[in-house]
UniProtKB/TrEMBL annotation:
Gene Ontology biological process: ceramide biosynthetic process
Gene Ontology CC terms, in alphabetical order: membrane
Bilayer-crossing regions: 53-86, 202-222, 228-246
Full protein name: Fatty acid desaturase
Molecular function via GO: sphingolipid delta-4 desaturase activity
UniProt keyword terms in alphabetical order: Membrane, Transmembrane, Transmembrane helix
Fatty acid desaturase domain location: 75-313
Classification via Pfam families: FA_desaturase (PF00487)
Keyword Endoplasmic reticulum among UniProt keywords: no
InterPro entries listed in its UniProt record: FA_desaturase_dom, Rhizopine-oxygenase-like
Amino acid sequence: MTPTPRDYSLIGRDAALAEANGIAAAEWYSCPIERKQLKELMKRSDGPALRDTAIWIAALVLSAAGGIYFWGSLWAVPFFLVYGVLYGSSSDSRWHEAGHGTAFKTRWMNDVLYYVASFMILREPTVWRWSHTRHHTDTIIVGRDPEIAVPRPPDVAALLLNIFALKSSVTTLKSLFIHAAGRLKPDEATFIPEMERWKVYVVARIYLAIFAAVVAACFWMGSILPAMLVGLPSLYGGFMTIYFGLTQHAGLAEDVLDHRLNTRTIYMNPLFRFLYWNMNYHVEHHMFPMVPYHALPRLHQAIKDDCPEPYPSTIAAYREIIPTILRQLREPAYHAVRHLPDGKTPVPYNHGAIINPAE
């Protein structure tokens, strides 16, 4: 018998099912850790983020300068490649950490980085702040989580288009026009508080004004160089966003209340960790989201004996993700199973939704 397709909208059948089954805004499993140690790990500091942000901005300026200087020759390509990744991919982790308010100790520093990085990654700051809050409350709970990157069955064409942020950018542009007109989409109305909605409308108008100014500058100069610096890097430099992002949850269990089962921790090289701001320690981040990015390696050491074996690299993770996604085209209920250490018990699956034959 073919399972009933899941409804990933936030106002449909599975949203009601999640509430009925008690997995909406439910209590999640947390690995045991001493309160004193966790408190120490949660300490915020401006220092690490100031250092890393200064390096990031310097790299952006130098690569942009090289691209401008060599504009019109092939020598500009490597400079814009670096600039694009820094602009269109590493802004994802900066947006994320600043949005949690943990990157810096000083609040206004988090806010500035959050708004700048949100623009660079083509995300509307207020929409995504509340969307991400829901994502943490109901991680990969169908009908509740607005940030499920790979619904089942997967839309492979959309995933391929988003290697260069094509589908997601078109979606964002459509949303900007809706929001600039003073309206929200139905799903957004379920998680954005009434008192925050005016911010959505104002920022949408600011974004559209900036893009209009960039287009005007291109016509005035008779060159796409202004767009190569503002706007287009979100596309041509966005490929690392999806490369990193799919490793977080793609192909893992839905409707469970244990981050060890629906989230991956992956070991990465130092360059990737800088670009991704340690979000490769993703089980740890979801379990204790108030721990700053620079403390996640220490948190990992503290709880790793209670967690599945980390993936040794992103390549190792994709050796699981790609076959799983392809299999889900035929068997939407299938998912990759994370195995806990001997003697560790997972939080039970929600059997009110689709029952996975692999369980």
